[in-house]
Amino acid sequence: MVEDTVTDGKRIAQLLSSELTGLEARPLHRVEVTDADSDAMPADSGTLAYQITVDKSVFAAVQLYPEYIHVEFESALEETEIPAELQMDDPQVLTVTNGAQVKRAVDVIRAAVRQDW
């Protein structure tokens, strides 16, 4: 059986949004996906898909690219442990390149919320 790997930026962003809105466990119960643009299309320069808020304050923005997404945090994740399979372009930008990495990205967001908020 062949498994498909999701590498489309828009689909990865949708998976992340679904994970974040579907989890009620602490501290993610305070997280919301806001300002979602359902018409946003991936672009080489990035396109804002939605914002992630914690207690109504902007925590991060999700940018769409053709084959990945960036989760751009409002503050650096210097104290947050980042799983090896995820990339940090800088201390504020997490790169998610496939659907399988979404769960790990949620773990990073959970840790960052605990740390900073």
Describe the secondary-structure layout.
Blueprint: H1 9-22, E1 31-34, E2 47-54, E3 57-65, E4 68-73, E5 87-90, E6 93-96, H2 102-116
Antiparallel strand pairs: 1-2, 2-3, 3-4, 4-6, 5-6
Structural description of this entry:
- With 117 residues, the chain is α+β, with helices and mostly antiparallel strands.
- The protein has one domain (9-116).
- The protein contains two helices and six strands; from the N terminus they run αββββββα.
- A six-stranded antiparallel β-sheet has the order 1-2-3-4-6-5, covered by helices on one side.
- Helix 1 (9-22) crosses helix 2.
- The termini are far apart.
- The model has no long low-confidence stretch (mean pLDDT 90).
How would you summarize this macromolecular structure in one to three sentences?
With 117 residues, this protein is of the alpha+beta class. The protein has helices at 9-22, 102-116; strands spanning 31-34, 47-54, 57-65, 68-73, 87-90, 93-96.
Strand content: 25-35%
- The computed structural class is alpha+beta
Task: Report the count of strand segments.
Answer: 6
Radius of gyration: 13 Å
Main sheet overview: 6 strands, antiparallel
Strands of the largest sheet, in order across it? 1-2-3-4-6-5
The mean pLDDT is: 90
The gross shape turns out to be globular
Q: What percent of the residues sit in helical stretches (DSSP H or I)?
A: 10-25%
String of helices and strands: HEEEEEEH
Q: Termini distance?
A: 43 Å
Give the number of domains: 1
- Pick out the low-confidence regions: none
Number of helical regions: 2
